[in-house]
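Give me structure tokens for this 220-residue protein.
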Amino acid sequence: MEVFQTLRNTSATAPNTSSSANSALGTADFEMFLKMLTAQMQNQDPLNPIDSADYAVQLATFSGVEQAVRTNQLLEAMQSQFGLLGMAQLAGWVGQEARAAAPVFVDGTPVTLSPNPAAAADRAVLVVKDGLGRVVAREDIPVSAEPHQWVGRDATGAPLPQGTYRLELESYYQGDLLTTAPVEYYAPILEARGGNGSTKLVLRGGIEVLATDVTALRVP
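Here you go.
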């Protein structure tokens, strides 16, 4: 197994990265293997020649390594293509409105909420929290899953300062709190960003959400 051992030692000295390993193994093509095999045959001990079965094992071993390298390279290329395909599809989302449970940017523009009160609720209360988690407003909204236009006002009815807020919905039945859940809302998609194995959508105000967290799309 001298030829294969030589190839393995050569690849082991390369930098420990996927691209470096693939490059090192990629240079050990079949032509180089035949040259090394020929040199091995020419320099073997005449009194103790290498068994022909060993040559067959070396050839099969090298072929297996070569096929494994080619398979890995093909998988990497396919993964790259799939990533580009995903980004191409998401490019069509830009300009549409995404629905997600995320922080909301308030600047005086009405926000379309998509509340989802508990099934048995007879009262729904929208709770607004600022960036520090402080409650700045509470208001009753219709007990319905229909879209609701929220204008962004504080407890006194004055417009909220521009900034990012979190919205929660409290569902009550006969005065008892049933559930508290984040509120989904619609916002225009400004950009789609890929990286680190995930894709993020940038909404109005710079709010970022994972594409997998979007539950609906609509044309504004």
